[in-house]
Specification:
The structure is a single chain. It contains 13 helices and eleven strands. It is α/β, with parallel strands linked by helices. Strands 1, 2, 3, 4, 5, 6, 7, 8, 9, 10 and 11 form an eleven-stranded mixed sheet that branches. Helix 6 runs parallel beside helix 8 (142-149) and helix 10 packs across helix 13 (278-304). The structure holds pseudouridine-5'-monophosphate (PSU) and manganese (II) ion. Pseudouridine-5'-monophosphate (PSU) binds next to helix 2, helix 8, helix 12 and helix 13.
Length: 305
Amino acid sequence: MKESLVIREDIKIAIEEGQPVVALESTIISHGMPYPQNLKTALECEAIIERHGAIAATIAILEGKIKIGLTPDEIELIAKGEEPVEKASRRDIPYLLALKKNGALTVAATMIAANLAGIRLFATGGIGGVHRGAESTFDVSADLEELATTNVCVVSAGIKSILDLPKTMEVLETKGVPVIGYKTDYLPEFYTRGNEIKIPMRLDSPSEIADLLKQKWGLGLSGGVLIANPIPKKNAYPKETIDKAIHKALIDMKNDGISGKEQTPYLLDRIKEITGGESLQANISLVYNNCELAAKIACAYAERV
Ligand code: PSU
Ligand code: MN
């Protein structure tokens, strides 16, 4: 129902005129980072996108409406978490709309909302994927299914390294999702640049990526594209240290009996504590880097439409 979708006026005009627009998610604000760093990061993401010539559209569900383009006050509401804001993926959208609740949207849900509005580019941190131990828990993020079906290009620092990266790559291959290494032959591993898992496709410029998107969707090959953009060298975390922190966080999670959609927020928070806050700085830096690239791709794509 279109009345559930509320697009900010300037964004609506930009989409109609084919100007570059980049979507931003809200789970990363509410469940991915602590206050007040989350608020500062969310606002800076918008500023980076605008400095690179595109319009930023942060997306969430507020009082039962899917809002494309939040105001700074609305971003603050999500960042503070004083009012209940649920982490929402595809399955949660109708429930939140029917009950007029608030929801912070995951990668999967943001792709759905962006696609409904006609936005093709989306910047995030790292996507969800196949959790370690999924062979017994069956815990596979709905982000993968969404990438298989919804026509949005997701600019990420790869798959969050708390997950099982080789299994996630296998699922993406099965589902026909192009995973593109940006200026790299190896899969970026979120907090680190990655040098172990070969990535099958590499592109070196925003305009090449825009060409790929045009080809894919022009042919009617539906589904998303995942851009894997390594964290900037100066902010990359030492691989051994982060691996140890992830290992410890996974053990703590088991001991604390955390399961389902609580897992990712728990792990990100625990890793932040174990690393004395340094993982958060890395996370913020990679998100900024993705916003910049997404804006550049959006501009190149807009020239081709
Ligand atoms: N990237 C980040 N931090 C995050 C996320 C991505 O840097 O918190 C969020 C995204 O919203 C992604 C979600 O969709 O984590 C994955 O959750 P799950 O594994 O429960 O599907
Ligand atoms: Mn899950």
